[in-house]
Amino acid sequence: MLDLNSAYSYLLLTKYYCDTCVVAEADGKIVGFVSAFQPPRQAEVIFVWQVAVDEEFRRRRLGLNMLKHLLAREICSNCRYLELTVNPSNHAAFNLYYQLAHDLKTSCVEEECFPSRLFPGEKHEEEVMLRIGPLI
């Protein structure tokens, strides 16, 4: 399994947001997944909720290629921005998103999104919003 999120959340994504999700397979096994959606009243934005890559397939640009595949879809043709949140300690995610912005020849802007105090418990880091774009 790629991630520990609820199986129910994946079922919801496949039912309601299949046009903005990407699955990568190798030898009949799911090795990568991007879940994304268009936020209500923001037709120019695609929000990426998750990029997951099987450990065996990391460092092969799979996450980057899945994001590019998503952005090439018809549903994203009018999107000007890709948004997502990431924990400050997730260096791999920051590298991925800044590499995507570089490859797309656009910017990646960081701003505060969800402070850690909003999460239950005391172990969750803040979530930083990254906004990649404008997409051409």
TrEMBL record:
The reaction(s) this protein catalyses: L-2,4-diaminobutanoate + acetyl-CoA = (2S)-4-acetamido-2-aminobutanoate + CoA + H(+)
Domain of life: Bacteria
Assigned keywords, A-Z: Acyltransferase, Transferase
Entry's Gene Ontology molecular function annotations: diaminobutyrate acetyltransferase activity
Pathway stated in the Swiss-Prot or TrEMBL entry: Amine and polyamine biosynthesis; ectoine biosynthesis; L-ectoine from L-aspartate 4-semialdehyde: step 2/3
Annotated ranges, domain N-acetyltransferase: 1-136
InterPro entries (UniProt xref): Acyl_CoA_acyltransferase (IPR016181), Ectoine_EctA (IPR012772), GNAT_dom (IPR000182)
EC number(s) on file: 2.3.1.178
Gene3D superfamilies named among the record's database cross-references: 3.40.630.30
GO BP terms, alphabetized: ectoine biosynthetic process
Family of the protein in this entry: Belongs to the acetyltransferase family. EctA subfamily.
Stated role: Catalyzes the acetylation of L-2,4-diaminobutyrate (DABA) to gamma-N-acetyl-alpha,gamma-diaminobutyric acid (ADABA) with acetyl coenzyme A.
Protein's UniProt name: L-2,4-diaminobutyric acid acetyltransferase
Organism: Syntrophomonas zehnderi OL-4
